[in-house]
Write a structure and sequence with these properties.
By secondary structure, the chain is mainly beta. The protein contains four helices and 16 strands. Keywords: Signal.
Length: 263
């Protein structure tokens, strides 16, 4: 009996040790089932890099229609980020709200943590803030009270572009494109799905963090489905038909994937 007990104890010990050892060939990424992904925003105006103006009478850019302008403020919300796999399934980031601001470099890098490891073939996101959050009261982080919010009835400003143009109709030549609205015919919420380069996948792993580099072209606010001329277009300061027209423009091509790092 003593010998049998001894052999049984040795067998159980060997089984426990073998079971706890990692088998050769195991993928370490499968042990840690999540990784990290970044989305980098580069703001441009056509072929040039966006530079915020310091002098209201210096016009660095022109629309496709030929209207000179500059930019003093450029901010927008990105929310509801989704990452799509080749089989059509998606990872939806919870509590996904970011305020992107050209004046604050740190705000142009969106870090998405706890992404399930895998090979992703696409992404989509909302330009703006979804309807429930527009009426949810005082909130925190990117949705904290700021000058990107009007009121509980009109909600958040989804995109804010301000600047000057010599052909603007105001006496000061100042322009304020404040785009928002989440209800009925004035709904300016737009989902975009910028395509990855052909054949490229975003490989999320536990031991490296890829980054998607997006170009965001301010000119796309003023061209596309709707032509915008500063001298005749009623510049929106809130929800309305013209805000929807601007939203239709930037949803049609303002965001493009330039490249993917660390793949």
């Amino acid at each position: 009996m003593k010998i049998s007990s001894l052999f049984l104890g040795l067998a159980l010990t060997a089984w426990a040790v073998t079971g706890c050892e990692k088998k050769k060939g195991d993928d370490p990424n499968l042990v840690a089932k999540t990784g990290e992904l970044s989305i980098e925003m580069e703001h441009v105006v056509g072929a040039g890099v966006l530079k915020l103006a310091t002098a209201p009478t210096t016009y660095d850019y022109a629309t496709p229609s030929g209207d000179p302008f500059n930019v003093t403020t450029f901010r927008y919300y990105v929310s509801n980020i989704r990452l799509r796999r080749a089989d059509g399934t998606e990872y939806v980031q919870p509590n996904s709200y970011y305020l992107v601001d050209e004046a604050k470099p740190a705000y142009k890098l969106l870090t998405i943590k706890d992404v399930p490891v895998g090979d992703y073939t696409g992404l989509s996101f909302l330009i703006g803030v979804d309807a429930p959050r527009n009426t949810a009261g005082v909130q925190e982080n990117a949705l904290a009270p700021s000058d990107m919010f009007w009121s509980w009835t009109t909600g958040y400003i989804f995109v804010k572009m301000e600047g000057y143009s010599p052909v603007a109709t105001s006496s000061t030549r100042f322009m304020q494109f404040h785009i928002g609205g989440f209800e009925g015919p004035n709904n300016a919420l737009k989902t975009v799905s910028p395509a990855l380069p052909a054949g490229v996948k975003v490989l999320v792993r536990a031991d490296h963090s890829p980054a998607i580099h997006l170009k965001v072209d301010v000119l796309k606010m003023f061209t596309g489905p709707n032509t915008v001329r500063f001298g005749s277009f009623a510049i929106p300061h809130g929800p309305g038909a013209n805000a929807v027209k601007i939203a239709e423009n930037y949803a049609a091509g303002m965001f493009t994937v330039e490249h993917v790092y660390a793949n």
